[in-house]
Amino acid sequence: MRQRATKTTRLDRTLAALADPTRRRLIERVGRRAQRPNDLCRGLPMSRPAVSKHLRILREAGLLEAVPRGREMLYRLGRHPGALAEARAYLARVSRAWDRALEAFKAFAEREDDDR
User: Fold this and answer.
1) How far is CA 67 from CA 70, 74, 75, 76, 95, in A?
2) N or C: which end of the chain has fewer CB within 10 A?
């Protein structure tokens, strides 16, 4: 059986980036204010290279951006929230589908109760 090659979409990258609790924690930290990588490493049980890898994944997903400041690099939230907006729209679509399914199940269960 041949496997199809799958194309990674922006939504895939965004959801994969957000799936990791460390990356969500980094986003929360950067959301308060732009920070240097050394500051972002504080309190995390991992090495600086591991944090750098997480930051790279967040940058590639468009959730963070690196801004040079002198000899340092600051990380801040991405200025173009398209990736997050796309994920939000996806989750809203899925949520509406679940809401419709649950409403249909509720109506079915109520009809069953009425028939007894």
Assistant:
1) 10, 5, 6, 8, 36
2) N
Which is nearest to 87 in space by CA: 54, 61, 57, 55?
61
Taken in order of first residue, the domains within the chain and their CATH numbers are 10-115 (1.10.10.10)
Question: Which residues face 67 on adjacent strands?
Answer: 74
The pair of structure tokens assigned to 7 is 């194309």
Nearest to 54 by CA among 87, 16, 22, 76: 22
> Quick one: pLDDT at residue 5?
55
What is the pLDDT at residue 17?
A: 96
Q: What is the pTM of this model?
A: 0.77
Nearest to residue 61, comparing CAs of 82, 31, 90?
82
